[in-house]
TrEMBL record:
Keyword Flavoprotein: no
Protein name stated in the entry: AcrR family transcriptional regulator
Pfam families found in the cross-reference section: TetR_C_43, TetR_N
PANTHER family, sorted: HTH-TYPE TRANSCRIPTIONAL REGULATOR BETI, HTH-TYPE TRANSCRIPTIONAL REGULATOR RUTR
Originating species: Streptomyces olivoverticillatus
Chain residues forming the annotated DNA-binding region: 31-50
GO molecular function, one term: DNA-binding transcription factor activity
Domain HTH tetR-type: 9-68
Amino acid sequence: MASLRADARRNRVLVLQAARSAFEEAGLAVPLGEIARRAGVGAGTVYRHFASKEALFRATVVDRVRLFTDSARELAEAEDPGAVFFRYLAAVVRLSVRNKGLCDALEASAEGRFEPSPGVEKDFREALAVLLARAQQAGAVRRDVTVEDVLGLLLGCLSMEQRQGPDGAPGRLTALMCDSLRAGRRVTKLPPRVAQRRNETGCAACGGPVPSARTGRPARYCGAACRQKAHRERARARAEAGSELVLEAPELVPEASEPVLETEV
């Protein structure tokens, strides 16, 4: 029994190693049979450890994200926080752009079609937030940047680096992205974030937020002024429609036919 368990563990490791290299080269499009061939096992062995190819793909992505998280945690107390932060971002992009599977996963995650693991994503976000906060405290990164901004820029930069032509310089777009985060006097002021309140709709008159009513009919206007404005517009529209009908009325009434003269026989 002990040897069987050891064989099972060994096969699982072989499958994961083969899957990492296969997904890195071809992404999620790689057939499961190709992964089994690389691992030197049958397809049935793969299914005994992973319910589907998607489950195997998820496991490889989680391993890579955890590696990024562990690296960020190791750098949390490093000297020169600004330089460390920018080197870390460049390394994440450089390593990710070579991994077709990870690129597919990140793109699908941004579109809501893939979620590696809520806990894994949370850990990565928190570790990245620590590096960002230390770089901001050191004066190397602008204060109005949030971790959500950095994550969005990472995804965008990764996508652009992937789509560079043969003449593109590797890392050039990443360097431009990093420069956009650096602190300085002459930087573009970011628009303020609009806090979205739950259960809000748009005012039918001005488009502003309208909190939904807890009871009764849902509100359509943000206040009395917009409600009165909408009422006046409806009244004016009805009046204009009525005047048009009055003007067109003579044309709608058919002319009386000529009277028939009665003649005596």
